[in-house]
Amino acid sequence: MLSLDRVGKTYPKGVHALGGVTLDVELGEIVAVIGGSGCGKSTLLRAIAGLDPPSEGAVVLDGERITAPHEKIGIIFQEPRLLPWLKVADNVGFGLGNLPKADRAAQIATALRRVGLTDKASVWPRELSGGQAQRVAIARALVPRPEVLLLDEPFSALDAFTRTDLQDHLLDLWADAKPTLILVTHDVDEAIVLADRVMVMRPRPGRIFDEIEVDLPRPRDRQSAAFDFVKRRVLAALDRSLNRAPTGAEGEPKAAAGAALWW
Amino acid sequence: MTLAGDRAKELLSQPATPQNLARLVRPMLGLVLPVTLAVLWELIVRMGWATGRLAPPPSVVFATFVDLARTGELQRHTLVTLWRVGAGFGIGVAAATCIGAAAGYSATVRRLVDPSIQGLRAIPSIAWVPLFILWLGIFEASKVTLIAVGVFFPVYLGLMSAIQSVDRKLVEVGRAFRLTDFAMVRRILMPAVLPAYVISLRSGLGLGWMFVIAAELMGASEGLGYLLIDGQQLGKPAEIVAAIVAFAIVGKVTDWLIVLAASPFLRWEDVVRQD
Ligand SMILES: Nc1ncnc2c1ncn2[C@@H]1O[C@H](COP(=O)(O)OP(=O)(O)OP(=O)(O)O)[C@@H](O)[C@H]1O
Ligand SMILES: [Mg+2]
């Protein structure tokens, strides 16, 4: 289990980016984090990854405090960040430790097959499309079999079609080993398609403002009424988190904005 | 370079459509001007419109070149010059790589050494010659030192700034995969820096050739630079031009050797250059 205990972050220049985030995530759970720009989502994710340890509080994975990158935690960034001097296959195998050649090749081949890029194994990253490159990045992150996979707006640079494609793909891959996924996104649909829980954050300092369970069976139909219902709830929470009038029909604007203030 | 070879093969194996012909011919365009001028000058001298005494026509230069090669003079002088450039280049590159890598990697080292090196860089290297001669004598040591100094600066600068401008995002990938410092250097920093490093080696080598001429012009009994002076003092312009041609050839060949040695490691870069 992954536990965040009052995780706070103040950057050296005095920016109070995170103000005490407490959150427990069960193994295999998919949590989406959503919120306005600059509300500390990336900071939170980087703290969990151990890339930028928190200045207050603690990130604890299976009883172990995370202060540096950990083998059980993988991360996928907004950009694929493939190493341009390695062929696709070697990029996928980048996180594999010392293994016999055959094992290594087998694991890489499996990972590439799972993301549907077997034919690109010996191609340079520059020769991939954006969506393909991000799939390679996903394969690279999954190959070491992380227990927790963090994703920071992984599909935001892709076109809408590729994005939904990769969302479905990610779910497929997740179903294999069922790691914990923590996904930062700007896309409400993406959050609801993927997550068991959507955390809405609010800024200055960043903290969790609201939490919405997504109790829909998978695969989820983006067109269904139930989906739409959850979407409205998330959008309303998002609006309140930004002290804005809600976009949905329900709720009076004044009351909603007021409701945000007590937090 | 293997790439060029592959490309040539690929071109040759294709049917000779007008487009393919154009692709073969286009690189040759650069030869049109010099060849035309050379042929023109040859004709003018042959026709007796000019004596060609001070500016020998290509045929005379070629004859002189062959002559020098037949007596072994050309090889002897070339080897001496090559040795000087090789030694100076080796020393300069070794020093520049160590100091440049340290300064690129560690901000403390950079703060410590970079201002001094930048200060020294402002001095035209030739200005050191009298001092080097006083310290090291007029023979090989002072020449090699001058070349090493000339090579040092571009390589140092190139390597240091390349290390500093390594994409932090890729370094972070290394961190996320828990690379040790050593693995980080070997698996991320070195490959990331290599293209810029090779470029700096090439410009360092170019300067090395420039400084070897300077060193040899200022006093030498052997070397291609000596051949230049010899040709001047004996009034043999064809010998001067032959020596210049020799410089051009060895300069180009050594540059090409660097490119060749690096090309297996830089093939990933070629992907963009192809078109
Ligand atoms: N390295 C840093 N140094 C100083 N301040 C930073 C740094 N990184 C982020 N911040 C600040 O911390 C706050 C939160 O930033 P963060 O990147 O976590 O936001 P975010 O929610 O991911 O935003 P976005 O949705 O735009 O990606 C912002 O105010 C930002 O300016
Ligand atoms: Mg962010």
Summarize the structure.
The complex is a heterodimer of chains A (about 260) and B (about 280). Chain A is about 35% helix and about 25% strand. Chain A has helices at about 40-50, 90, 100-115, 130-140, 160-175, 190-195, 225-240, 255-260; strands at about 1-10, 15-25, 30-35, 55-60, 65, 75, 150, 180-185, 195-200, 205-215.
Write the layout of secondary structure elements.
The complex is a heterodimer of chains A (about 260) and B (about 280).
Chain A: E1 2-10, E2 16-25, E3 30-35, H1 41-49, E4 56-61, E5 64-65, E6 73-76, H2 88-92, H3 101-114, H4 130-142, E7 148-152, H5 160-177, E8 180-185, H6 188-194, E9 197-202, E10 207-213, H7 225-241, H8 253-261
Parallel strand pairs in A: 3-8, 3-9, 6-7, 7-8
Antiparallel strand pairs in A: 1-2, 1-4, 4-5, 9-10
Helix pairs in contact in A: 3-4, 6-7
Chain B: H1 2-13, H2 18-25, H3 29-46, H4 58-71, H5 73-105, H6 107-121, H7 129-136, H8 140-164, H9 168-176, H10 181-217, H11 224-233, H12 237-262, H13 267-273
Bound molecules: adenosine-5'-triphosphate and magnesium ion.
Adenosine-5'-triphosphate binds near residues 11, 40 and 41 of chain A.
Overview of this structure, please?
The complex is a heterodimer of chains A (263) and B (275). Chain A is α/β, with parallel strands linked by helices and 263 residues long. Chain A has eight helices and ten strands. In chain A, the strands form two sheets. Chain A has a six-stranded mixed beta sheet, with helices on both faces. A four-stranded antiparallel beta sheet of chain A has the order 2-1-4-5, covered by helices on one side. The model of chain A is unreliable at 248-263 (pLDDT under 50). Chain B is mainly alpha-helical and 275 residues long. Chain B is built from 13 helices and no strands. The A-B interface holds A 49, 51, 68-71, 74-75, 77, 79, 81, 83-86, 94-95, 124, 126-127, 144 and B 169-170, 172-173, 175-178, 187-188, 191-192, 194, 265, 267-269, 271-272. Bound molecules: adenosine-5'-triphosphate and magnesium ion (MG). Magnesium ion (MG) binds next to α1 of chain A.
